[in-house]
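Replying to the earlier thread about multi-chain prediction with a worked example.

Input:
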Amino acid sequence: DIVVTQSPDSLAVSLGERATINCKSSQSVLYSSNNKNYLAWYQQKPGQPPTLLFYWASTRESGVPDRFSGSGSGTDFTLTISSLQAEDVAVYYCQQYYSTPQTFGQGTKVEIK
Amino acid sequence: EVQLVESGGGLVQPGGSLRLSCAASGFTFSSHWMSWVRQAPGKGLEWVSSIKQDGNEQFYVDSVKGRFTISRDNARNSLCLQMNSLRAEDTAVYYCGKVNENTAYRHIDSWGRGTLVTVSS
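Result:
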């Protein structure tokens, strides 16, 4: 199984400041035949189901604000919130869909400092 | 608009059974793989199972193999998860998810609100 590890487990950022979340997979999720990274990012606000932020590691889902960005390739990925807003308080998860079982990271809780 | 509505959760004793359902609308159900993902109280997300468009291929996480069965009824736009021999560690909110495109190896682009399963005596 591919193990997906996020860091940090939690972070507190001031409003308007940058938040950076890292995601590392135990093996590459880059599929050579199409040069796509099989990695998604989800946001989960308290009491709500997850919602999709990014797929293919860096393709923003429709409606996601452009202060959010996804980057990385192979085994190392990053979700960045360039200017944290109050509504961004949530837990963020990365997920690899390269192989089954499709594993999630443990989540990163983002709070306001 | 895609809608996924789970039902069937509740309190069940260890060793018991429960059948979850997911009613889908707003998209061509028969064209998509579908998945179940669960979340134990206060914990992270865990993928549980996925099923092909025609129901002829399924994947499961090891911890539920032989106990859970995923199925679908394309005529009714319905996804099911039959859960047998339930354990305390199966306690979780169970989410129904629509897999993007027509292959298992894609992200989940829509999620239901979930249904809570509690396994306790």
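The interface with chain B takes residues 38, 40, 42, 44, 48-52, 55, 61, 91, 93, 95, 97-107 of chain A (CB under 8 Å).

Feel free to reuse this layout for your own posts.
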